[in-house]
Structure formats: structure tokens, C-alpha cells
């Protein structure tokens, strides 16, 4: 059968002995039962990797090359299987409709590791296919991230490059550690890829931020995730591809608070027709220079229903701030739509005001800008601390024909300090 062709048994080549605990956290990799024949580096038929040994000190397979799963094939890895990837370019890659299905069990996890116990010992896993079988569950993935994949910005243990616009993937109950790059990279700036689930994953000893992800998929980042020994202590977030409204978010997204902040590292978060991004109490979002968050400008055909809702509570505010301190270190928040769901309540917003959101002269901006040239932009802003703007605290005048529709107490129900332009609320 095909499996026998690609797997050549070893005579129990010893690396180092270990007990069961060592195998789950392989500081001392054990023996290996079989090695992959690299002349069969492309899988084009359904293949199953079975657990070859019940010996806690013995690994099942060694892989010394990149293995591609292509066509309509699925590589299925059964519970309890352990694999050592022992070269820098070794790893798994899916393409076309090929799928990698590695579903372990709580008591029988699947282990992907390396006998070279250092960060970046092997490449990792690259998902570039739209197979429904792309699933990782109860997988321990250690020492990956040797090489940055094509169409990805960072080295990663698990990469979803932008190569295939329709890639689909589910990851849950996995433990990702000792990556030389990030733990997980998914830069989909057009919202066409699918992250089906991402619950109960753990990240430890990661060289970069544990997760690089596009704003389209922020709803999948939640409080079931855990992090320890992270060198870059934030979730790295990409904005919309090329800042193009063509690819703006048009669905509902909820951002949950974590023990570490989110950080927008490129482009803007943009929301359009019917889309809504909501920030729950306790969320901390940082913005690098040149980034911001906005709705599409309201007009007769689009943008009117897009909304941004950042609603904290008295004991747990939503925070938007620049990575760098001081005035104008990021663009700010622009509520340019006519939605009644543009809400900023119990927020701390600081360091913005650098955004010039409207392509005409003579427009005043703020940490928060409420404006439209074609319809009445709407917003309710209350109980917020608005500080360190390079312009006004809030600019809510709107255009001559379409003044901004904001709460009457906007100037008195918020707190302002150290904003470069007066008045704090420009109306």
C-alpha cells in the first residue's frame, strides 16, 4: 500500500531515552520507529499515519524534508502519533484541496517536535488549501519556525499564507511552544479565508508575538487562549489590505479582553456596509504610527450602517492608545457613518489625531472624528477620557449640509486633557 512505500522502518535508531512525561514535553526525544522516504515528498492519495509504538520513549516517525499534501488527498494522523522533524526545511504543507487532519485526544495528544531541541529546528506547518479536513486538535507543536513561508511576513509554527484566498482551518486544544517566530500567522486582509475555530490553545516560549492575525478574524481570539513566556507581549493585528474599502469588514466582529493587549501593526481597521466591530470591557488596543480605525464614509449607497462600538463599564474601560506616547502617535477613531450603533462609552482614548480621513481640505479632526460629506454621521460618546490628541479631543462638526448628530452632552459627559487644539470638542 502507499503508506508502506513512503515509510521505511528503522532498526530502532536511538536518540535518547525518555519517560512518558518527557515525550509530551520532549526535552529528551526518544527512539523512532520509521523514517519518511523523501522521494515521496508529495502526498496525492489519502494517507494515514498510525501510532507504531506504545513505548513512551519511542517516537513513531522521523521527517527530514518538506512534505506537501496536494490534490484532494488528506493526510490523517491518528491519536498518540509522535513525529520528529529533524531538518530546518522539514514540515507539512497543504495546497489545492489537500488536507492535514491531526486530531489527538486529551490523553493521547499528537506530538510534532524535533531531536534538535532549539527554536526553529524545523519549518512548521503551512496551510494553503481550502480542505475541510485542515484540523489540528490536541497537538503539541514544539521547536518550529525556522523559515518564513512565501506570502507571509513572519516565521511561524503554523502559517496560513495569503497564497490561497479560500484557505480553511480549525485549531483547538493545541500547545504551541519554542517557536523561533510567532506561534500562529494569518494575514488574510481581504476576509476570504476561514478560521473555523481557535479555542483552548496555549502558547509558550514564543520568540515573537504569539499570534499575528488580521482584524477580520479577531472574534476567534478569546479568553480560552493562554500565554506564557512571550517575548513580544501583544497580539499583532493587521488592518485591511491596502487600506482599501473594497476589502473592508462587512460582518459583526467582537473583540474580547485578554491578559495582553492587541496591537494594530499595519493599515487601518475599516468597517463598511452592515459591518460592526465591538470592543468588550477591558480590551486594550494599541496602534502603531500611521494606523487607526474607522467606518466607511456614509453616502447614498454604502457605509450608513457600518459601526464601531467600544462600550466599557465604570470599572473596566475600553482603551485605545498609541504604542508611542505623546500627541498624534496614531490616526485616531473616525466615525463616518450614520449608524446608531457608533458608541464610545467608558473609553480611554489617547495619542490620536494624526488621521486625515476625508480627501478634501478644511476638515477638522480629533482623537475621535465624526464627519460625513453626504449624510449625517452619528455617534454617542460618553464617560470617556480623551487625551493627548495632536488636534481636538473630538471633532464632530460634520459638513455644512450634514452636521454630525451626536449626544447633546458630548462636551460635558467626557473628560479631556492635553489636546493640542481647542476647543476640546469642535462642533
Report on this model:
Residues 1-30 have low confidence and may be disordered. A 14-stranded parallel β-sheet has the order 3-6-9-12-15-18-21-23-25-28-31-34-37-40, with no helix packed on it. A nine-stranded mixed β-sheet has the order 1-2-5-8-11-14-17-20-22. 2% of the residues lie in helices and 41% in strands. It has two domains: 1-238; 243-427. With 427 residues, it is mainly beta. The protein has two helices and 41 strands. It is elongated and about 75 Å long. The protein starts with a helix and ends with a strand.
Largest sheet geometry: 14 strands, parallel
Widest sheet, order of strands: 3-6-9-12-15-18-21-23-25-28-31-34-37-40
Helix fraction bin: under 10%
Low-confidence stretches: 1-30
Rg result? 25 Å
Q: What fraction strand?
A: 35-45%
Number of domains: 2
Query: What would the average pLDDT be, to the nearest integer?
Result: 91
| CA distance, first residue to last residue | 76 Å
Class computed from helices, strands and strand pairing: mainly beta
- Number-wise, the strands total 41
Shape: elongated
Q: Count of helices? A: 2
Quick recap of the structure?
The protein has 427 residues and is an all-beta fold. It has two helices and 41 strands.
What are the SSEs and their pairings?
Blueprint: H1 2-6, E1 7-13, H2 20-24, E2 31-36, E3 42-43, E4 47-49, E5 58-63, E6 66-69, E7 74-77, E8 82-85, E9 91-96, E10 99-103, E11 110-113, E12 124-129, E13 135-137, E14 139-142, E15 156-160, E16 168-172, E17 175-177, E18 182-186, E19 194-197, E20 202-206, E21 211-214, E22 226-230, E23 235-238, E24 252-255, E25 262-266, E26 269-271, E27 276-279, E28 284-287, E29 292-295, E30 307-311, E31 318-322, E32 332-335, E33 343-345, E34 347-350, E35 366-370, E36 378-382, E37 385-387, E38 392-395, E39 405-406, E40 415-417, E41 425-426
Parallel strand pairs: 2-5, 3-6, 4-7, 5-8, 6-9, 7-10, 8-11, 9-12, 10-13, 11-14, 12-15, 13-16, 14-17, 15-18, 16-19, 17-20, 18-21, 20-22, 21-23, 23-25, 24-27, 25-28, 26-29, 27-30, 28-31, 29-32, 30-33, 31-34, 32-35, 33-36, 34-37, 35-38, 36-39, 37-40, 38-41
Antiparallel strand pairs: 1-2
